[in-house]
Write a structure and sequence with these properties.
Length: 117
C-alpha cells in the first residue's frame, strides 16, 4: 500500500508524509556515487527517494516497532516496485530493519531541500 499526502497550511508551509515499504542499500554500493554526486557512505544517515529534492531532511519510522531516524535525501530510488525509500546501513540499524530487509515505513519531511534537483 502506498499513501501520499501533501497538505498546505496557511499557504506558505507544507507537510509531506508517505507510507509504504522501506529497505536499505547493499554494502556493494559503498563508495559509489549517488545521484547527487556524493559517494554512498554506509555510516552516514542518508536515503534515496524518487521525488524529494536532494538535501531534504526526512524522519523515517519503522511502523512495526516505532523506531525512527532522521535522514537526508542524497540519491534517487529505490528502483524496486512498491518501495518508497532506501536508507543507509546506519539508518537501517537504527530502524532495526537489517534482518528483515524490507519493512513498512512512514516518511515525514522535516525540512524540504532546495527544489530543482
Amino acid at each position: 500500500m502506498l499513501l501520499l499526502s501533501l497538505t498546505a497550511c496557511g499557504g506558505s508551509k507544507s507537510a509531506f508524509t508517505q507510507s509504504g515499504q522501506g529497505s536499505y542499500y547493499a554494502d556493494k554500493f559503498a563508495g559509489r556515487p549517488t545521484a547527487s554526486g556524493a559517494p554512498y557512505r554506509p555510516g552516514q544517515l542518508t536515503a534515496a527517494h524518487n521525488t524529494l529534492p536532494f538535501g531534504t531532511k526526512v524522519k523515517v519510522t519503522n511502523t512495526r516497532n516505532g523506531h525512527s531516524v532522521n535522514v537526508v535525501v542524497n540519491d534517487r530510488g529505490p528502483h524496486v516496485k512498491g518501495r518508497i525509500v532506501d536508507v543507509s546501513k546506519r539508518a537501517a540499524r537504527k530502524l532495526d530493519l537489517l534482518d528483515a530487509g524490507v519493512v513498512p515505513v512512514q516518511l515525514k519531511v522535516l525540512h524540504m531541500g532546495p527544489t530543482g534537483r
